[in-house]
Amino acid sequence: MDPHQNHQAPQRLQLRIQRLDPDLPLPVNARPGDAGMDLRARESVVLEPGQRALIPTGVAIAVPEGWAGFVNPRSGLAAKHGITVVNAPGTVDSGYRGELKVTVLNTDTTHAFRIERGDRIAQLVLQRVAVVDVVEVTELDVTERGDQGFGSSGSQ
C-alpha cells in the first residue's frame, strides 16, 4: 500500500453561485486538488505604482453556514508583478449575498500593471469556521507563554 495515496474521496461542498456577468466564466479550481477557485476581473483597470482598486468579479455566492470564503492573492501575480490583495485574506461571511469584489494593490514602486476584464485576480478558498459562544471571565488560565507577545517564541 502506498502511504502517500489518499484512499478516501475528499469531502464535497456545494457552493451556490449567481453569475452577475454572463460573459465571465464561473470560479473553478484550475487543477484537481487546488484549494482556491479563480476569481476574475469584471472590469479593466490600470494600477499605477502604489495604487489600489476595488474590482468587481461578476459573481455572488451563498457560503453555507458554518463556513466562510477567504479571498487570497494569486501567488503568480504577487511574485511576478507585486500585485496583492490589500485585506488578504478578505472574508466572505455566510450571510453576504452581494457581488464579490477584490481590493487589489500594486506594490511595485516603478511599474504600472494593467488588469484586463476576465483576468484572474484572486482566489477564493472556502473553510469551515467555528461558531462560538463568547464567555466573559475575570481571568484566563495560566500558560507557559503567558502574555509574552510578538517575537517571544524565538529570535527568528
UniProtKB/TrEMBL annotation:
<protein>
    <recommendedName>
        <fullName>Deoxyuridine 5'-triphosphate nucleotidohydrolase</fullName>
        <ecNumber>3.6.1.23</ecNumber>
    </recommendedName>
</protein>
<keyword id="KW-0378">Hydrolase</keyword>
<dbReference type="Pfam" id="PF00692">
    <property type="entry name" value="dUTPase"/>
</dbReference>
<dbReference type="GO" id="GO:0000287">
    <property type="term" value="F:magnesium ion binding"/>
</dbReference>
<dbReference type="InterPro" id="IPR008181">
    <property type="entry name" value="dUTPase"/>
</dbReference>
<dbReference type="GO" id="GO:0006226">
    <property type="term" value="P:dUMP biosynthetic process"/>
</dbReference>
<dbReference type="InterPro" id="IPR033704">
    <property type="entry name" value="dUTPase_trimeric"/>
</dbReference>
<keyword id="KW-0546">Nucleotide metabolism</keyword>
<keyword id="KW-0460">Magnesium</keyword>
<dbReference type="InterPro" id="IPR029054">
    <property type="entry name" value="dUTPase-like"/>
</dbReference>
<feature type="domain" description="dUTPase-like">
    <location>
        <begin position="25"/>
        <end position="154"/>
    </location>
</feature>
<keyword id="KW-0479">Metal-binding</keyword>
<dbReference type="InterPro" id="IPR036157">
    <property type="entry name" value="dUTPase-like_sf"/>
</dbReference>
<comment type="pathway">
    <text>Pyrimidine metabolism; dUMP biosynthesis; dUMP from dCTP (dUTP route): step 2/2.</text>
</comment>
<feature type="binding site">
    <location>
        <begin position="74"/>
        <end position="76"/>
    </location>
    <ligand>
        <name>substrate</name>
    </ligand>
</feature>
<comment type="function">
    <text>This enzyme is involved in nucleotide metabolism: it produces dUMP, the immediate precursor of thymidine nucleotides and it decreases the intracellular concentration of dUTP so that uracil cannot be incorporated into DNA.</text>
</comment>
<feature type="binding site">
    <location>
        <position position="87"/>
    </location>
    <ligand>
        <name>substrate</name>
    </ligand>
</feature>
<dbReference type="GO" id="GO:0046081">
    <property type="term" value="P:dUTP catabolic process"/>
</dbReference>
<comment type="similarity">
    <text>Belongs to the dUTPase family.</text>
</comment>
<dbReference type="GO" id="GO:0004170">
    <property type="term" value="F:dUTP diphosphatase activity"/>
</dbReference>
<feature type="binding site">
    <location>
        <begin position="91"/>
        <end position="93"/>
    </location>
    <ligand>
        <name>substrate</name>
    </ligand>
</feature>
